[in-house]
């Protein structure tokens, strides 16, 4: 399982790195003004709907069901089930796309009402959204194909698909002079990427002779069971997206640049969430589902504990860095072209607020696997419902005084509430215990994180002063030096606290 996690995490890391290169181009060409806000709204809307109707809900309901059917009855019934789900998903997304394209102005007015006071920004958001929204249908197919491949223990091509989005947008941004605006270039890059992603993952699935095709949708027992799991999963995904919609709606009333600051901070915050949290969850869910299907409850819990341990090892340094030197991170990555030092300061403060909730964000999918692997998609919704209410209430309370930083802080508090409730529900039902090794490792890793944070806090000022004479590369150089220092401190602390045999034991565990 560790090898599969590293495969998914490695490809996701490549995706994030190319994503940063893409965002550097976006920051340099679009900056953080009204045009950038319009594009990010156009990008965010299909991504919200994708997370509700495809990625989040679909994976939670489909992968355990497909794995169960294939394990109990073989490949042919599993293919029939996949065909019927494919037909349902395609029809639903096609209808949603048609409605969204027809009523795009109304959708923008509803989800970004603050744009209505700026006719130029509103019109541009509508135009760009009509270009990007077909990406929803295409990436939904990618999600379905990827879910089947994951259930077959194939993880590479679904994890690699997002790389194409970054490369496509970079290519169109490089040709921005041939488009009406740079926002149009970026939007067309999104659409082209959806086509390329769907073709790549479909080709991989075709090689395994598992590519779905259209079938008459019959509500047999398998499909009914899938729908019963899908309903709560959609509600859960919708709850998460409601909180993100609240960010979009509230930020649209704030000063120009607030949406962009949220975007750039979230892009950095999503690095550990994607490389670590999503990689762990992607591999852990089918692994636990497979073990539970054959009655290996102990093996399923051991796989979950080792996954949480790995996630903590890799994410704690990110929490320290995002909390101690967020401004430097933004300056080093984005401070060029139209992206100013003031933009970096706003995005850095937002990143620090996101860092408060990074650990539960990374661990959320590993903990929710306790329920999803057993076909229970309803319990996570209960925890999420409480978290969303608290999240949105805090956003409303904090927006006037703290702007987008308050929105990010509310998100962090909400995810902590969600995580704590999930753990409580799981422990009450005896689904999660956290073995002695995990509890001991958690305390040791926390000590390593504190040592890293103290080192960064002490060294940041002197390092910046030493790099002042390096001109344009001073921020990159300072971040690089602190990164090397931090890796040495954290790596040394882990080696001292755990001993040389820990990695071997970890891999065996």
Question: What's the quick description here?
Answer:
The protein is mainly alpha-helical. The chain has 18 helices and no strands.
> Sheet with the most strands?
none
In whole angstroms, the N-to-C terminal distance is 10 Å
Q: What is the chain-wise order of helices and strands?
A: HHHHHHHHHHHHHHHHHH
What is the strand content?
Answer: under 5%
Descriptive account of the structure:
The structure is a single chain. The chain is mainly α and 509 residues long. It is globular and about 70 Å long. It contains 18 helices and no strands. The chain folds into 2 domains: 209 residues, no CATH class; 222 residues, no CATH class. The mean pLDDT is 84. Helix 2 packs parallel to helix 5.
Descriptive key words:
0% strand; 2 domains; mainly alpha; globular; 509 residues; 18 helices
């Amino acid at each position: 399982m560790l090898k599969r996690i590293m495969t998914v995490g490695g490809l996701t890391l490549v995706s994030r790195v190319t994503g940063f290169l893409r965002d550097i181009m976006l920051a340099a060409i679009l900056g953080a003004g009204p045009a950038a806000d319009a594009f990010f709204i156009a990008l965010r809307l299909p991504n919200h709907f994708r997370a509700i109707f495809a990625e989040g809900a679909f994976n939670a309901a489909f992968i355990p069901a497909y794995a169960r059917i294939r394990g109990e009855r073989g490949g042919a019934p599993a293919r029939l089930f996949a065909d019927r789900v494919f037909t349902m998903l395609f029809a639903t997304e096609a209808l949603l796309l048609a409605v969204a394209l027809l009523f795009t102005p109304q959708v923008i007015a509803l989800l970004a009402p603050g744009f209505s006071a700026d006719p130029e920004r509103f019109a541009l958001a509508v135009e760009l959204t009509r270009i990007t929204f077909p990406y929803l249908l295409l990436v939904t197919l990618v999600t379905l194909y990827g879910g089947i491949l994951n259930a077959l223990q194939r993880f590479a091509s679904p994890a690699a698909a997002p790389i194409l989005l970054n490369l496509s947008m970079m290519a169109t941004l490089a040709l921005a002079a041939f488009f009406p605006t740079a926002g149009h270039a970026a939007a067309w890059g999104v659409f082209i990427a959806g086509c390329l992603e769907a073709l790549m993952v479909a080709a991989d699935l075709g090689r395994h002779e598992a590519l779905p095709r259209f079938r008459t949708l019959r509500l047999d027992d398998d499909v009914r069971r899938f729908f019963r799991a899908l309903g709560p999963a959609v509600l859960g995904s919708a709850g998460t997206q409601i909180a993100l919609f609240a960010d979009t709606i509230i930020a649209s009333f704030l000063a120009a640049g607030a949406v962009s600051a949220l975007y750039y901070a979230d892009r950095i915050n999503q690095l550990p969430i994607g490389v670590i949290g999503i990689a762990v969850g992607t591999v852990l869910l089918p692994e636990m589902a497979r073990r539970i299907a054959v009655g290996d409850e102990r093996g399923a819990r051991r796989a979950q504990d080792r996954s949480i341990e790995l996630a903590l090892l890799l994410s704690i340094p990110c929490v320290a860095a995002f909390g101690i030197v967020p401004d430097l991170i933004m300056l080093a990555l984005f401070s060029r072209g139209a992206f100013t030092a003031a933009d970096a300061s706003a995005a850095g403060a937002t990143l620090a607020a996101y860092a408060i909730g990074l650990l539960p964000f990374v661990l959320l999918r590993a903990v929710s696997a306790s329920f999803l692997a057993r076909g229970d998609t309803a319990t996570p919704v209960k925890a999420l419902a409480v978290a969303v209410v608290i999240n949105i209430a805090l956003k409303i309370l904090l927006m006037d005084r703290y702007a987008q930083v308050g929105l990010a802080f509310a998100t962090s508090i909400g995810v902590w509430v969600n995580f704590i409730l999930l753990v409580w529900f799981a422990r009450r039902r005896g689904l999660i215990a956290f073995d002695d090794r995990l509890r001991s490792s958690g305390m040791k890793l926390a000590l390593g994180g504190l040592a890293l944070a103290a080192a960064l806090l002490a060294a940041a000022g002197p390092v910046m002063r030493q790099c002042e004479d390096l001109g344009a590369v001073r921020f990159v150089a300072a971040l690089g030096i602190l990164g090397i220092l931090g890796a040495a401190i954290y790596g040394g602390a882990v080696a001292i606290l755990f001993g040389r045999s820990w990695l071997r034991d970890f891999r065996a565990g």
